[in-house]
Amino acid sequence: MIIKPKVRGFICTNAHPAGCAANVQQQIDHVKSQGPIAEGFKGGAPKNVLVLGSSTGYGLASRITAAFGCGANTLGVFFEKPPTEKRTGSAGYYNSAAMQQAARAEGLYAESINGDAFSDEIKAQVVETLKRDMGPVDMVVYSLASPRRTDPRTGVTYNSALKPIGEAVTMRGINTDTLVVEEVTAEPATDEDIANTVKVMGGEDWEWWMDLLMKEGLLAEGCKTTAYTYIGKELTWPLYGKATIGMAKQDLDRAAEQIGSKLETIGGECRISVLKAMVTQASSAIPIMPLYISILYRIMKDEGSHEGCIEQIHGLFDGQLYGEDRHIDEAGRLRMDGKELRDEVQSQVKELWGTVTTENVMQLTDLKGYKEEFLKLFGFGIPGVDYDADINPEVDL
Ligand code: NAD
C-alpha cells in the first residue's frame, strides 16, 4: 500500500508505519544523546514504569524517556486502532510497535495493553500483567487525553466540553483546513458541561488507578506518580485555564493531594507536572490552540528556546522528577512551562495575535511549522522516509 496523508479537519485518519517508526527513533536518539538520567541522584532512576496514555504526545515521550534514559522496563496503556490489510493503524499503534521493538532490542521489557484505560477490564489486565511480568512499579505516568469516559461503576458515558465559563468568548482562531483566520465565538458551558469535563479529564480515574495498584501491592517503595497539565496565561485562560478543561485540571490538583497523602505510607511522591503547549492530537482539537501554538513556536524558535515533547519530558525526568533542578510552584506542581510563560514571550504572542490575518498568517507565525509538526504526528513529512514505496500496513505490536 502507498500511504499518503488523509487529513479531515483537525485529525489525520491514517498513519505511516515507517514514518511513525522514524519519529520514535528521533526521540530515542535525543534521549540517548543526553546520557543516563539520575546518575548520582540518591533515589536512583525508575526501573519499572507504567505509562497510561503511552502511545502519542507527552505519554509516548515519557515512555521513551523511561526506557532509553532510565533503562526502565515499561508497560504502556493506550487506545489505538490496529491496522488491517486494507487500512492503516493509528499513529499511536505504530509508535508503540516501534518503541517496543527498539526497547526489546536493548534487552528491556516493553509490553503494551491496547484498550480503554478507564475500564475495569483494562485495569485488571494491567494488574495481571504486572504481577506476571514486571512486579511493583516505581513510577506511574498518567497522560490520558480523551474526549469521553465511561464510568465503569455506573456504565454512564460522559463527554467533555471545550467551553468558556460564565459568558461567551469571541477569539481569533485559525481553521487549519482552509487556513482562514477568523473570529470564533464559543458559547458558555452549562453546569453539566463543567461536571462532565471534570469527570472525563479530572483526577478521579488517576486516583482509581493508584488505589488499585496500592491495594494489589504493585507500588514499590518510593514510587513516584505524575499527571500532566497545562496552565497557560491570560491569552489562553478564557478557553483553557479558566474554562471547562481548566476546571478538570484543577480537579487533578485535588486528586494529586489525595494520592500524595496515600503514597506517604510507602515514601512515594505525587506531583502534577505543568508542561508547555505542544502540537499533539489532543491540542489540535482545542479551538484556540493551533493559532496560539503557531505564534508561540515562531517566537520561541526565534529566541532559541523552542522544545518538543521529548525535550520537555526528558527535562522533567532529568531535572525535576529524578534531579535536583526542581521548579516547584505554590501548589506543589513541577513547572516545565517557565520559558513559555515569560512576560517577554507572552507580550509578543499578544501583539502578534492582535495583528494576524489570513493574508499575513504565514509570514507572522510558524503556521508552516505547525502543519509540519501536525503531519509528523502521523508519520508524514519525515526526511529519509520513502513515501512512494509500497509498504505493508500490518505491523505486529
Ligand atoms: P495525545 O492525544 O497525544 O495522547 C493521548 C494518549 O491517551 C494516547 O496515548 C491515547 O491512546 C491515550 N488515550 C486516550 N483515550 C484513552 C482511553 N480511553 N484509554 C486508554 N488510552 C487512551 O495527548 P497529549 O497532548 O500528549 O496529552 C497528554 C496529557 O498532557 C493530557 O493530560 C494533556 O492535557 C497534557 N498536556 C498537553 C499539552 C499540549 O499542549 N499538548 C500541554 C500540557 C499538558
Structure description:
The protein has one domain (7-376): 3-Layer(aba) Sandwich (Rossmann fold). Strand 9 and strand 10 (180-186) form a beta hairpin. The strands form four sheets. It has a seven-stranded parallel β-sheet with strand order 5-4-3-6-11-12-13, sandwiched between helices. The chain has a two-stranded antiparallel ribbon with strand order 1-2. A two-stranded antiparallel ribbon has the order 7-8. The protein contains 13 helices and 13 strands. With 397 residues, it is α/β, with parallel strands linked by helices. It has helices at residues 17-33, 57-70, 91-105, 120-134, 191-201, 204-215, 244-263, 289-302, 309-321, 338-341, 343-355, 361-364, 367-376; strands at 7-8, 11-12, 48-52, 73-78, 110-114, 137-142, 148-150, 157-159, 169-175, 180-186, 219-229, 269-274, 334-335. It binds nicotinamide-adenine-dinucleotide. Residues 53-59, 77-80, 92, 116-118, 143-146, 228-230, 275, 277-278, 280-283 line the site of nicotinamide-adenine-dinucleotide.
